[in-house]
Amino acid sequence: MTDQLAPEIEARIRESFAKQPMMETVGGEIVEIAPGRIVIEAPIREGLRQQQGFAHAGLIFTLGDNAAGYAALSVMPPGSEVLSVELKINLLSPGLGRLVAEGRVLKPGRRLVVVAADVWGVDESGARKLVAALQGTMIPVTV
Amino acid sequence: MTDQLAPEIEARIRESFAKQPMMETVGGEIVEIAPGRIVIEAPIREGLRQQQGFAHAGLIFTLGDNAAGYAALSVMPPGSEVLSVELKINLLSPGLGRLVAEGRVLKPGRRLVVVAADVWGVDESGARKLVAALQGTMIPVTV
Amino acid sequence: MTDQLAPEIEARIRESFAKQPMMETVGGEIVEIAPGRIVIEAPIREGLRQQQGFAHAGLIFTLGDNAAGYAALSVMPPGSEVLSVELKINLLSPGLGRLVAEGRVLKPGRRLVVVAADVWGVDESGARKLVAALQGTMIPVTV
Amino acid sequence: MTDQLAPEIEARIRESFAKQPMMETVGGEIVEIAPGRIVIEAPIREGLRQQQGFAHAGLIFTLGDNAAGYAALSVMPPGSEVLSVELKINLLSPGLGRLVAEGRVLKPGRRLVVVAADVWGVDESGARKLVAALQGTMIPVTV
């Protein structure tokens, strides 16, 4: 893969991302975008926590799913939208700080795109701790 | 397992659930509670949708995770809290209507509790469609 | 689904199964075959054990994968072969006795078939214990 | 992690590996061993193939499981054995050539060790293709 994403593909990803009310609810932002690789950041808003004050697994999953999904979309043919087929998440440490989700393509394909994502918790000093690892499958759908 | 949950275990589950800001954000409610089995319902709020207007996979995961987690907690020793170790989700159809997540214990254990959850979409006529199937692992933690 | 499998589909499954050298190596046999549901049995041969004398996770996976895969093939169009896209296995108890793997279709589909399988250990008295639960995705391929 | 594995831990891994009849059946050999990282190689023996002549998913899983499991054992306290709790495998391309499974530790822990493994197919020229990616959980057991 080249390092530069075609402008129409980047536009398609940003447009799809902007149309997700969920990303507004969680405060998610795309901070890196490259072929087969997307990084999304979000704070841990009060309303998205679990009973002990950490990020709810559902928030961690949401960010990992989106990072992986848009990484997949970046290698799909023009005119595609992306659908999550399945994802597996291992939760490694409590979600604390600012969350950074890095999605990447393990294997592109016409019918299926295999993806992975890591979700990190970053504290105020910039130190990062791995919060979750995801692995899964995305498919292109025609819109 | 017997059909009746000990009152202190039911209280522990309801208390933990009530302490999750995430459940308030998604409008989740426990509608059934039995040993090894919890059912949670939630609407698909506007702010929790993806780009095509369906429930975001993150919302579906959140409900399945909670139903599976509290099903696990229902078979854990008194004084435990529950932590999600890992979960696998297959997304089967678009999330539409009212979501109903049914968590169940596949195998209780002292160190690990293996769980599954189904998430259904229920339309206004009451017809239900399977939206997602989850399988995973929970552990008890001392609080 | 009806209870009776079309004869040409049953023949296709039995033919594909018979062409797998792995099934001969593990001593696997189809013992039930219905639309969306296949049951395979196998002994735990000496050479397929792990370091403590139990069935190797790889043997348990092999049987669950095949049961799930042929359950998927039973709902695929004529002329298809089946390919495992991904599978998740939770190992619940040591593999002992005779292994029985029950595969079933959670959701048929033109592009993807979502499947599950349970693998049981059955002792000489006929008592069964759940050894593993699998969930995954199969796709049709043209041969 | 340091690059050098303590001799007693290396001995424990090699001993456990040697006691697995399954590894003899598949012809598996440890080719690299370091803290949190194990590489296993095996040919694709005729009897371990599927209906199209490729490596059976069960063989690929077996090697990935063992590489991940022994990577986990390398970070466990003395006197432990390792047990696979759960594993997720994505199959990326047909298993061809000589199989090389690289297991690694994503997160060590007292109660749980989170692991990953990649399985490669290597042809006679030495070119390698990613055949499968695994992610899962191992636990220590006292023997």
Automatic annotation (TrEMBL), chains A, B, C, D:
Organism encoding this protein: Pseudothioclava arenosa
One annotated GO molecular function: fatty acyl-CoA hydrolase activity
Pfam families: 4HBT
Gene3D superfamilies: Hotdog Thioesterase (3.10.129.10)
Every Thioesterase domain range: 52-122
Listed name of the protein: Phenylacetic acid degradation protein
Keyword check for Oxidoreductase: no
Family: Belongs to the thioesterase PaaI family.
Superkingdom field: Bacteria
Keywords on record: Hydrolase
